[in-house]
């Protein structure tokens, strides 16, 4: 049961979990894009080096904060739920389009 | 960088959007009692810089930005 509690005692944990999850997702998306740019070959070696180092530092920082706040587990759970949400949406889109209107006249013999 | 489970995660979804790029066009008019009150004309392009520059968008800016950084680096190297 994952529930983000943003009142009472666990308010801080809940908010922290939410914020760190969003930050983590953003960083990962940016990393993917960085890899794409590196592979496309229009970045200089120095730029690749710099971006790589920056991301490594960011990741270390995120991990450290999660460790400090002890929200490793809740962040993973929230991510999993978000991922499932997306999978479900994608699965739904894979299905053939539903006909909004269908009319089967009853043939009178 | 540790490889994450590669299912249809939220990261993959956004990644696909950035990889291919997306253009959103919308015209919205909010009307009350048949009197139009608020208009919104939206045309947005969202893409990773790699795709963006492929389409020739932000290309000059991208080059300028990176050149500027290189110049800063060089001038600080000279000072040392």
Automatic annotation (TrEMBL), chain A:
<comment type="similarity">
    <text>Belongs to the gas vesicle GvpK family.</text>
</comment>
<keyword id="KW-0304">Gas vesicle</keyword>
<protein>
    <submittedName>
        <fullName>Gas vesicle protein K</fullName>
    </submittedName>
</protein>
<dbReference type="Pfam" id="PF05121">
    <property type="entry name" value="GvpK"/>
</dbReference>
<feature type="region of interest" description="Disordered">
    <location>
        <begin position="90"/>
        <end position="109"/>
    </location>
</feature>
<dbReference type="GO" id="GO:0031411">
    <property type="term" value="C:gas vesicle"/>
</dbReference>
<dbReference type="InterPro" id="IPR007805">
    <property type="entry name" value="GvpK"/>
</dbReference>
